[in-house]
Amino acid sequence: MTSLAERWGIHPEHFWLRGERPAEPVRFDEETGTWTVYGHEEACAVLGDPKTFSSAHVNEIFPVQVDESMRAGNLLDMDPPDHRKLRNLVSKAFSAKVVADLEPRITALTHELLDAAVDGDRLELVDGLAYPLPVIVIAELLGLPVGDRDLFRGWVDVMFSENDRVSMNDDKETLETEFAAQVEGMAPMLDYLRAHAVERRKNPREDLISGLVRAEVDGERLNDDEVVNFSTVLLVAGHVTTTMLLGNTALCLDAHPDQRARLRADPSAVPVAIDESLRFLTPFSALARATTREVELGGKRIPPDRMVMVWLSAANRDPRRFADADRFDATRDPNPHLGFGRGIHFCVGAPLARLEGRIAVDILLDRFPDLRVDPERAPTFMPSPMMTGVRSLPMRVA
Ligand code: HEM
């Protein structure tokens, strides 16, 4: 049977999406000079040991150095104890209670967006719903004008291009050129967020950026770089991945009409289906870590100061962990997938992403009983090998 990945041509090099198994759970990849982790158990071992597999050290061993002003306040690049202090600041902003209170707003927004997006019997799911919904929600939380959302999209495209591949073998000049292009592409976003941070210092409001400029860590306020980089992570992580989750779930349900019909009949099963979508087509497909010492993993000895790529999307298809791993099973429960990561960096926004996913899928199933991928226009996918997810998804509602 043709896999969903083969049918739509999703990342041909991600062989695990096509039912092939990695020969080993951990291997050294000559082409990129990185250690590659495919196994679920091994991925958990890496993500559960930040002392040995550091996030901060990734930048230190990379041939091109990222300026400190661009790193400060980026949760994803931090190790304990700094990580914990900063993470505590946002954990409260995304607590179960705060997120649950957003339900009426997300529901109203989903209906509003769909009302505007349906054109006859056509619905472009990404432009119409999967992109604007999470971006409006995170922009409103941060306190950014929702009307600026097309700007965000342009900036994010620069960040996640097809060149977004981690390799230690590229020559330094190529890396420097690529990196300079990235920095240049991101500059307008950083300037934009800096202007908002400066404004909130003068006129605080009830939003997350004001919360960050007011916040104190060890008795000290965050500086502007920290506020800007922190907000960047929230803005970018807060929508790109959720856009993919919504689109991927629609694609999975389209490929499995029987499972879709069951969900329509019993919407209480939607949350379980959302988690299966995260396992089956994992939006954030790979995470980078760097070794701080020699370590044994999956029967291999990895030296210190090596880049380790944890392929969450491959670990999520590990047959040692998941029965019938290549089958999309919307009733799979428990589902110990790694779609939101694991350990201290576990996704802060997971409750919000799950809520947005549940509401959007509920409403789509309810409003459009005949929703299907447009037979005349194929979906397209994010070009970055680090991301697995639809970028455009033309559908028919009748
Ligand atoms: C971290 C995936 C939605 C904010 C992560 C990580 C993953 C992930 C895999 C771990 C990174 C690592 O270990 O290096 C996803 C997916 C999402 C999603 C698949 C949607 C389906 C969101 C949303 C927000 C968010 C909606 C914010 C509103 C963050 C932040 C971190 C993070 C701030 C860093 C946490 C830390 O380093 O402690 N996410 N995410 N994410 N995510 Fe998400």
Structure description:
Helix content is 48%, strand content 11%. The protein has helices spanning 4-8, 40-47, 56-61, 68-71, 82-91, 96-100, 103-117, 125-130, 132-142, 149-159, 172-202, 208-214, 224-237, 240-255, 257-265, 270-280, 312-315, 350-367; strands at residues 26-29, 34-37, 53-54, 122-124, 216-217, 220-221, 286-291, 295-297, 300-302, 307-311, 372-373, 380-381, 390-392, 394-396. The strands form five sheets. The chain has a five-stranded mixed β-sheet with strand order 1-2-10-7-3. It has a three-stranded antiparallel β-sheet with strand order 4-14-11. The chain has a single domain, classed as Cytochrome p450 (Orthogonal Bundle), CATH 1.10.630. By secondary structure, the protein is α+β, with helices and mostly antiparallel strands. The site of protoporphyrin IX containing FE has 24 residues, from helix 13, helix 14 and helix 18. One of its GO terms (biological process) is cholesterol catabolic process.
Keywords:
cholest-4-en-3-one 26-monooxygenase activity, binds protoporphyrin IX containing FE, steroid hydroxylase activity, monooxygenase, 18 helices, Cyt_P450_sf, Cytochrome p450, globular, five-stranded mixed β-sheet, metal-binding
How are the elements arranged and paired?
Elements: H1 4-8, E1 26-29, E2 34-37, H2 40-47, E3 53-54, H3 56-61, H4 68-71, H5 82-91, H6 96-100, H7 103-117, E4 122-124, H8 125-130, H9 132-142, H10 149-159, H11 172-202, H12 208-214, E5 216-217, E6 220-221, H13 224-237, H14 240-255, H15 257-265, H16 270-280, E7 286-291, E8 295-297, E9 300-302, E10 307-311, H17 312-315, H18 350-367, E11 372-373, E12 380-381, E13 390-392, E14 394-396
Parallel strand pairs: 2-10
Antiparallel strand pairs: 1-2, 3-7, 4-14, 5-6, 7-10, 8-9, 11-14, 12-13
Helix pairs in contact: 7-18, 10-11, 11-12, 11-13, 12-13, 14-16, 14-18, 16-18
